[in-house]
Amino acid sequence: MDMQDQPENGAEPANIRFLRRLVTVLTAVMIAGLLAIFALLVIRFSSAPDLPLPDSIALPDGTEATAFTQGRDWYAVVTADDRILIYDRATGSLRQELQVTPD
Q1: How many Å apart are CA 55 and CA 59, to the nearest integer?
Q2: Whole-number Å distance between alpha carbons of 97 and 17
Q3: pLDDT score of 1
Q4: List of residues 6+ apart from 69 with CB closer than 8 A
Q5: What's the pLDDT score for residue 48?
Q6: Where is 68: in which H helix or E strand?
Q7: Neighbours of 88 (CB within 10 A)
């Protein structure tokens, strides 16, 4: 760019001023959006129900637990022999047993 193309008094052309303002506004909107997403995640995870863990789980003999998950009225144990044992939360009794099979 030649020095002759720039105005003498240091004023910016209108399109450059517009682009500068546009970038500033878009940056502010992006920051506000990220803060909103972060706030929603914090609110969502802080209001998650606090489900107590069972005191003990009676697994069938010879069964080794590898994973545990729970719902509102049930909890499940994944075993080393590829079974999912679903227990009733209120009674602790086995509600359902699922065999995981390969594809």
Answers
A1: 13
A2: 68
A3: 52
A4: 75, 76, 78
A5: 67
A6: strand 65-70
A7: 13
Q: How far apart are CA 78 and CA 80, in angstroms?
A: 7
Q: Which residues contact 80 (CB under 8 A, 6 or more apart)?
A: 63, 64, 65, 66
Encode pLDDT of 69-93 as tens digits.
988 899 999 999 999 999 998 888 8
User: Cβ distance 30 to 38 under 8 Å?
Assistant: no
Query: Distance between CA atoms of 84 and 73, rounded to whole angstroms?
Result: 16
Tokens representing 68 are 């545990």
Can you read off the two tokens belonging to residue 20? Answer: 């500068």
d(CA 89, CA 54): 8
51, 72 Cβ separation under 8 angstroms:
yes
pTM over 0.70: no
Kindly calculate the radius of gyration of the chain based on its CA atoms and give it in whole angstroms: 30
Say if residue 78 is exposed, middle or buried (CB neighbours under 10 Å; 0-12, 13-18, 19+). middle
